[in-house]
Structures are given as C-alpha cells and as structure tokens.
Amino acid sequence: MTATSETPANATAATALHTPVIAWFDANARDLPWRRPEAGAWGVMVSEFMLQQTPVSRVLPVYEQWMRRWPCPADLAADAPGEAVRAWGRLGYPRRALRLHGAAVAMTGRHDGDVPSDHAQLLALPGVGEYTAAAVASFAYGQRHPVLDTNVRRVFARTVTGVQYPPNATTAAERRIARALLPDEEARAARWAAASMELGALVCTAKSPDCGVCPVSGQCAWRLAGKPAHDGPPRRGQTYAGTDRQVRGKLLAVLRDADEPVPQAALDAVWHEPVQRARALDGLVADGLVEPLGNGFYRLPAA
To answer: Between 284 and which of 84, 158, 254, 289 could a Cys-Cys bridge form, CB atoms 3.0 to 4.6 Å apart?
Structure first.
C-alpha cells in the first residue's frame, strides 16, 4: 500500500488494511483489565492516563490498586490530590496523577460523577487532550474517532507512507491519513483503533518489527521499499540518570513514603548536588506536586 504523507490511501486500500488487522486483533489481543466490560469508561480513562509513555507491564499493578481504591471518579475526587500522587508510585510523569484527579473533580461537579461520552465534553476536562478524548470516546463508548498514539503513528508511517518512524510530533498530514483510514461504521472504527494500536505494540514495534507475523506485511510500503533506514530528524531519547527528572523522582519517593510532613533535611539526603536538588524541588512545588509548609517542612498536596 503506498501513499504520500500528504495523500491518504483510498477507500479500497483502507478496507484492505481493516479486515486483516482486525482479524489479527480478534485472535491476538491481550486480555487487559481496561478492555473488559466491567472496567467501564472510568477504567478506560484511568488506563489511558497511566499508559502515556509507560509500558503495560508497569501500569498493570498500579491500575488494579487504583481501581480498587477509587472505582469511580467521585471516589477519587473526594480524596486529596496528594493521595493520587502517592498511589501513582513510580509510574513516572506524576503530573498525570494530578491531572487525573482534576478530571475526576470536574466530572463529579459537571457530569454527576460519570465519564462523559461526548467528545467535546471529554476534551473540556482538565488534563484531557486530543488523544485521550478520542481514545476514551472510542474504546469506552465505541465511537468513530482517529486515535493516534505512538504505536498507531508508527504503523501508519510504515504501512502507508513507507518510512521507518513517524515525525517526533503529530502532524496535520498524519491526522489526514488517520481520518482517511477510519472505517465508516462506528463499531468497526472503534475496533480498528484498538487493533492498529495493538499491532504497533506487539508486532510493528519501534526496534524489532516482526514483519513475518504482520497481517499486512504484503501491503506495507516500508517493507516493499526494502525497509529504508530513518533519515529524518534524530529520534528523541529517554535519558533519565542524573537528570532533574531523576532527582524529582527521588524527592517524591520520600514524600510518598511519609505519613507526616517531611523536613528539608530528609529531602537534602536524597541527592548530593544542592543546586540541582533545589531546582528539582522548586519545580515540584511549581507543578503542584509538593506543598511547602512552615519551618522547612514539605508534604504531598492536600488540596
């Protein structure tokens, strides 16, 4: 299947992708708790917040504990935002926990504690962007929306545009391709969104694509072109050791493990470099993840 990044595939070619990918998904989809009917829209939303830049294996135990503790948005909204940060554990990017808490508060106030099914109402929730709104509307409510996460973008880049990796940031051309590939029927569109995402997660992976088991390898523009190497801008790495992000994680770990406010001295002990440590702590306070108290004590946010 061939198309340029500016010219989406035609309807016939799109249909030729839908059938084998959805059939593959029907046979190979992982049994994940947020895909089960009992998860509901709230379970889908929680999973989407947690899965951003985080692998399934790390999310699963935190997700299950979270859903037992806060089985609906109102339960989370009634608790302090700091408890959401505490329960987030070491998933990383803990501002997602605050945003999820903020969304729960908004849903409790605006939607009687329910996750709205309307895409515009989802998008209006704090912390919910284009991808999350489309994913919840699609996966929880079976609606027809293009769902473009990293895995889907990689599948489309290879099968449609013939390049190894998508751009670093989602482009208008990618959105046009996603819309052109979307099946007309709502339930099939939702199934296609989940199937193409799973294909990217399990088969069309970033480092080791398994083209031998790919259901659309015969139509893949990148494979048919001889798998040309990536020649675009350098791909962003995931550095961690020695970064402010690592220091922030160490500081938050002390606060998560404490039942009472923590003195400055306990935070000073986690990192040897005082300037970087102070910068990381200031950043946590600015992001609302840490609340400074009097006399040099700190705690997770209480309100």
So the answer is: 289
186 noted as active-site residue? no
Of the residues 48, 174, 198, 291, which is catalytic? Answer: 48
Question: Residue 265 has which token pair?
Answer: 């001295």
- Residue 171 Rama label (left phi>0; alpha psi -120 to 50; beta): beta
Bridge partners, residue 291, by sequence: 299
DSSP per residue, 194-237: HHHHHHHHHTS-SS---GGG-TTGGG-HHHHTT-PPP-SSPPPP
Residue 180, both tokens: 């052109």
Q: How confident is the model at residue 8 (pLDDT cuts 50, 70, 90)?
A: very low
- Cα distance between residue 302 and residue 101, in whole Å: 12
Which pairs with CB-CB distance under 8 Å and at least 24 residues apart come from 157-160? Answer: 157/222, 158/204, 158/209, 158/220, 158/221, 158/222, 158/223, 159/1, 159/17, 159/204, 159/216, 159/219, 159/220, 159/221, 159/222, 160/1, 160/2, 160/3, 160/8, 160/9, 160/221
What is the strand order of the sheet 297-299 is part of? 262-263, 297-299, 291-292
State the amino acid at position 180 in one-letter form. A
Which tokens is 51 given?
A: 């899965």
Structure confidence by residue, pLDDT tens digits, 153-190: 999 999 999 999 999 999 999 999 999 999 999 999 99
8-state DSSP, 160: I
Task: Tell me the H-state helices in the chain.
Answer: 11-28, 40-51, 56-69, 73-77, 81-88, 95-110, 119-123, 130-141, 150-156, 172-181, 186-202, 221-224, 244-256, 264-268, 274-286
Residue 3: per-residue pLDDT:
44
CB neighbours of 89 closer than 8 A, spacing ≥ 6? 62, 256
Determine contact, residues 189/152, Cβ cutoff 8 Å. Answer: no
Q: How far is CA 22 from each of CA 82, 200, 277, rounded to the nearest angstrom? A: 41, 13, 49
Cα 234 to Cα 29: distance, rounded to the nearest angstrom:
32
